[in-house]
Design brief:
2 domains; alpha+beta; five-stranded antiparallel β-sheet; 586 residues; six-stranded antiparallel β-sheet
Length: 586
């Protein structure tokens, strides 16, 4: 077993070097190695889905935490376009992870160096959309969120025959789809025909529109596949979330038993079961029902058994349906696909969930020594290593290495340009601020489209939020209160303004759609500009207020020592074996 694990680790490192990726999600074959897989995972994305009858305002919501830690965070708006008959669309390999130095070029120019040599027929008209690492929302309120889920090792296809990757699929779905079902069928058929993989293994997409939200999961079919085989170059399955339910994907396959006769709830590639039979993953004579996730992406952890590294699924269901009393001991594979929440969720509820750090549970990373004297939940977001031993740490929903987080809303009672909103927060969720981007806007703030992890840039929106986050970490339990005040002033105010913005935009749209779109574009850009100014100022204020581990009262020009909790002082005394002395009497 030890030798097998060594080979597995070597294989993981090799794939990382070959593909240039920070993380590779591979489910080890067989049982017994899942703990190694769980402990070695450091990155991932959390996706939450809310059906229209599970939200307080009847909007359909999805979330995506892009929490790579080194990825490109920039955003673009792609306008609608008409294309001449016979036009072709080039397909490029687009890595989720890779970036280029700013002086070389931005990702959304440089990725075109990775042309696959494949072109597909272009459609006569492509729709406008907003995108970051993935396509997030188009002009018809089709919304997408992503989470890597992995697959069996033998299924991966890092060869050039895997022409289509997950980023490319989301961009094409944005360009060509008016509904979630249309997006799923478009992505599935393209992946089957041209081959899926290269940079990516198993992936999950939450695909939503005005009426419904689906879980779409796609996987490669191995490195030996070629178009000449006559077989599908991808394996995919989709399941609809019931309208009055909520669902979550925390980097684990979510689709279980499927019933393709229920076409209103399931869709799949033609090889969904036959591929498993051919490769020995499923025996139809066993008497056991076909279970997608257990066949293609098995994982045997629970919140408790993983030491919190796999606690996001349990935590989400415990937050939204506490009456169900889900146990952290329950294997994630046995938790339900979706649940009806105890109460309907508001937009603010969903934003709060994206920031959750297991407060009040046994997995709370801010408790005790792990959180330090100022209860900082961000000190140990990855497993701890001491020599050859790995100690798991809680992997929270809100994570400090997030590039950005999105919350999309699809609202069927409004015209598409007004009804769709992407709420975007750059950087760590707990110290950031969500800003609205309506589906119909024709431009996004310039500051959203620039920036890099390795070059500080005051013109980049992301750096304003990192600036605040950095200064919050010093005295977290104190500084986070200042951040929450700013969030109350700017984020909550934007949420409260939605109704008024909707009314104004709807009236303008009735008179002149172009005028309404200009109004929304100006509003989103101006709001973002004000928020960025506020966050730069907040960062400056935090630097001054908690400078030198003190509290500087700028109003009264007084300084006091930052109070350390008594339990922390006792631990320091104990660890360093400090000797007490009696203070001198004055």
């Amino acid at each position: 077993m030890k030798l097998r694990k060594l080979f597995l680790i070597a294989g993981l490192l090799l794939v990382v070097l070959v593909l240039g990726r920070a993380v590779v999600f591979i489910i080890p074959e067989g049982k017994g190695d899942e703990s190694l897989f769980t402990e070695s995972l450091a990155e991932g994305c959390t996706v939450v889905m809310v059906g229209k009858d599970a939200s307080t305002d009847s909007s359909i919501m999805t979330t995506h935490t892009a929490d790579c830690g080194i990825c490109d965070w920039t955003w673009r708006h792609v306008p609608a376009a008409d294309h001449k008959p016979g036009s072709m669309r080039k397909i490029y390999h687009i890595s989720q992870i890779r970036t280029w130095p700013p002086d070389v070029g931005n990702k959304w120019d440089m990725y075109k160096e990775n042309y696959t040599g494949t072109e597909i027929p272009q459609v006569p008209h492509t729709y406008a959309y907003h995108h970051g690492v993935f396509g997030y929302m188009n002009e018809h309120q089709v919304a997408i969120a992503e989470s890597t889920i992995g697959c069996r090792r033998k299924m991966r296809n890092p060869t050039p025959s895997g022409v289509i990757d997950i980023t490319t699929l989301t961009l094409i779905a944005m360009e060509r789809s008016k509904t979630a079902r249309e997006a799923i069928k478009t992505m599935g058929s393209l992946a089957e025909k041209y081959g899926y993989g290269f940079h990516d293994s198993g992936e999950m997409l939450a695909v939503a529109d005005l009426d419904e939200v689906w879980v779409f999961e796609i996987m490669p079919v191995g490195p030996l596949w070629t178009p000449k085989s006559g077989k599908p170059g991808a394996l995919w399955c989709a399941q609809r979330v019931p309208d009055d339910h909520v669902c979550v994907c925390p980097n684990q396959s979510r689709i279980g038993e499927i019933n393709l006769k229920k076409q209103d709830y399931f869709m799949a590639s033609s090889n969904v079961i036959s591929y498993a039979v051919e490769n020995g993953y499923y025996d139809p004579k066993s008497g056991k029902p076909f279970n997608w996730k257990k066949v293609y992406s098995p994982a045997e952890a629970s919140a408790a058994s993983s030491g919190g590294t796999r606690a996001r699924m349990w935590r989400f269901y415990d937050l939204v349906a506490p009456s169900r009393n889900f146990s952290p001991e329950t294997p994630n594979m046995e938790l339900p696909f979706s649940v009806k929440p105890d109460k309907k969720l508001s937009l603010q509820d969903v934003l709060n969930i994206t920031r959750d750090k297991y407060q009040g549970t046994n997995f709370d990373p801010a408790k005790g020594l792990r959180g330090g004297p100022f209860a900082n939940p961000n000190y140990h977001p990855r497993p701890l290593r001491v020599k050859d031993k790995i100690y798991p740490t809680p992997r929270t929903i809100g994570v400090n290495r997030a590039e950005y987080t999105t919350v999309t809303q699809c609202r069927d009672w409004l015209p598409d340009p007004i009804g769709g909103i992407v709420w975007l927060a750059f950087g760590a969720q707990d110290t950031s601020c969500y800003m609205p981007l309506y589906a119909g806007i024709t431009a996004i703030p310039k500051s959203f489209s620039i920036g890099d992890h390795w070059v500080f840039n005051r013109e980049s929106a992301r750096w304003a939020f990192d600036y605040v986050d950095f200064h919050t970490l010093v005295a977290y339990s104190y500084a986070i209160k200042d951040v929450k005040k700013a969030q109350e002033e700017w984020e909550k105010a934007a949420i409260d303004r939605v109704a008024a913005i909707d009314i104004t935009a709807k009236e303008l749209y009735r008179q002149d759609p172009i005028l309404a779109i200009k109004f929304l574009t100006d509003y989103c850009i101006n709001n973002a500009s004000k928020v960025l100014d506020a966050w730069w100022k907040l960062g400056d204020n935090l630097l001054v207020k908690y400078n030198h581990m003190s509290i500087y009262d700028t109003k009264n020009r007084k300084r006091t020592n930052l109070p350390y909790p008594e339990w922390w002082i006792k631990e320091v005394v104990k660890h360093h074996q400090l000797k007490s002395r009696v203070p001198r009497k004055k």
